[in-house]
């Protein structure tokens, strides 16, 4: 039976680990050893990581890799990726190489509008609320001048504020729906600060508005927060080539192109497949988003909402064959930043951004979309030809052998044994045991 703990956040890191080890581990010394094994010797660097979040007791490493040879809009990029799934980086690199020989990726940002909302309740006359909003709107914008002036100097700021009547969805529910241009910042702090000030000014002004009845003056602000659903912050990436150029697989180019287009059509038509199809796309997207210090949960939530925008969850990619040309493209919402937040704090994120030549937010949007498209291409290419297990299992084999503590020589020998065989965990263990018992 575990006990609750009082004042945990006030304990030192050592004390937290001690408490945890005693409360949850039979072999508490080993638990302490493992947790401390991941501490960084550089105390300054460790302190930086400790302070990212509360109650840090250790570091959780994920591999930081790069996928080279991405030809995007005529320039070569090496894309940094942070991910634990074994086949993702290899697949990205393979797709990059494939398209490098066929003109590369073309990517374009369509729009960069961010959204934030003040959600409030009002139970009076609708037209009086609209008149009040029209009267107060310039004051709302004026009230946040201190927050917006720097962003405005650089060409960004508030795009617009609308009053939205949501009473059909929920009784008495309205919004101030604000749109922003946050340039190279993801903009969460900027947007939330503006919204909280809008809410204060809006509520206070309503109380003084003589046209309102006394109950109308009592607007109830429920919350003020940015939206991670950004359907007007969109990037498009695509590849295309003559069908004849799809000539590297065991299918004929025409068979390949047709099967590929059908595979995408299936993901468009059927949500079970769409979820897995899009998960493969997110393998690429999340890995770059994470490596570049962006918020992958925000990106995930926004992208999946977009995939279901017509009421059914569908593929994020599309493919076509027209006049002998195979085209494959993706269009996704992405709210990313290349300044502020983790981008200026995390040393590896800074390196990732330098590898990408310090991109603007728009350039990063393009590269992230390209990584998603490349990942989907690689997955579908395997699925419609050799199947996914061949590549996956090779990596899986090495993971099992690493777990068993195999040497490089032993790995080579066992990999040879499994060259044309299905990788089954128990059989790998048996092969290893046989090798080591000799
Ligand atoms: C595995 O992480 C991703 C795939 O399942 C994606 C797909 O099925 O398209 C291979």
From TrEMBL:
Pathway: Metabolic intermediate metabolism; (R)-mevalonate degradation; (S)-3-hydroxy-3-methylglutaryl-CoA from (R)-mevalonate: step 1/1. Pfam families: HMG-CoA_red (PF00368). The keyword Disulfide bond does not apply. One of its GO terms (molecular function) is hydroxymethylglutaryl-CoA reductase (NADPH) activity. It comes from the Bacteria. It catalyses: (R)-mevalonate + 2 NAD(+) + CoA = (3S)-3-hydroxy-3-methylglutaryl-CoA + 2 NADH + 2 H(+). One of its GO terms (biological process) is coenzyme A metabolic process. It is an enzyme of class 1 (oxidoreductase). InterPro entries: HMG_CoA_Rdtase, HMG_CoA_Rdtase_bac-typ, HMG_CoA_Rdtase_cat_sf, HMG_CoA_Rdtase_NAD(P)-bd_sf, HMG_CoA_Rdtase_sub-bd_dom_sf. PROSITE patterns: HMG_COA_REDUCTASE_4 (PS50065). The keyword Plastid does not apply. Its EC number is 1.1.1.88. Keywords: NAD, Oxidoreductase. PANTHER family: 3-HYDROXY-3-METHYLGLUTARYL-COENZYME A REDUCTASE. Belongs to the HMG-CoA reductase family. This is 3-hydroxy-3-methylglutaryl coenzyme A reductase. It comes from Imtechella halotolerans K1.
């Amino acid at each position: 039976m575990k006990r609750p703990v009082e004042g945990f956040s006030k304990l030192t890191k050592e004390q937290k680990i001690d408490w945890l080890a005693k409360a949850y581990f039979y072999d508490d010394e080993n638990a302490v050893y493992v947790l401390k094994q991941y501490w960084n010797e550089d105390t300054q660097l460790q302190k930086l990581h400790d302070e990212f979040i509360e109650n840090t007791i250790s570091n959780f490493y994920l591999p930081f890799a790069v996928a080279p040879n991405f030809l995007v809009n005529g320039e070569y990029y090496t894309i940094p990726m942070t991910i634990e799934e074994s086949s993702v980086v290899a697949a990205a690199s393979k797709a990059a190489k494939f398209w490098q020989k066929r003109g590369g990726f073309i990517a374009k940002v369509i729009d960069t509008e961010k959204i934030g909302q003040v959600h409030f309740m009002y139970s009076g006359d609708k037209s009086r609320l609209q008149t009040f909003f029209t009267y107060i709107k310039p004051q709302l914008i004026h009230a946040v001048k201190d927050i917006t002036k720097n962003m405005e100097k650089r060409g960004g700021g508030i795009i617009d504020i609308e009053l939205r009547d949501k009473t059909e969805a929920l009784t008495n529910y309205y919004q101030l729906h604000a749109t922003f241009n946050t340039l190279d910042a993801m903009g969460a702090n900027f947007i939330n600060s503006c919204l909280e000030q809008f809410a204060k000014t809006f509520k206070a002004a309503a109380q003084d508005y003589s046209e309102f009845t006394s109950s109308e003056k009592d607007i109830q602000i429920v919350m003020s927060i940015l939206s991670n659903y950004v359907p007007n912050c969109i990037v498009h990436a695509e590849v295309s080539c003559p069908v004849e150029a799809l000539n590297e697989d065991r299918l004929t180019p025409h068979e390949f192109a047709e099967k590929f287009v059908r595979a995408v059509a299936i993901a468009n038509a059927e949500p079970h497949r769409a979820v897995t199809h899009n998960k493969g796309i997110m393998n690429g997207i999340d890995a770059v988003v994470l490596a570049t210090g962006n918020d992958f949960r925000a990106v995930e939530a926004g992208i999946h909402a977009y995939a279901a925008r017509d009421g059914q969850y569908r593929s994020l990619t599309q493919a076509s064959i027209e006049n002998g040309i195979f085209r494959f493209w993706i269009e996704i919402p992405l709210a990313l930043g290349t300044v502020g937040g983790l981008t200026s704090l995390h040393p590896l994120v800074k390196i990732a951004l330098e590898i990408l030549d310090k991109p603007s937010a728009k350039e990063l949007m393009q590269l992230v979309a390209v990584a998603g498209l490349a990942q989907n291409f690689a997955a579908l290419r395997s699925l419609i030809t050799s199947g996914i297990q061949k590549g996956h299992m090779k990596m899986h084999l090495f993971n099992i052998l690493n777990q068993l503590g195999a040497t490089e020589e032993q790995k080579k020998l066992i990999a040879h044994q499994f060259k044309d065989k299905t990788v089954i965990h128990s059989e790998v263990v048996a092969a290893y045991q046989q090798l080591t018992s000799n």
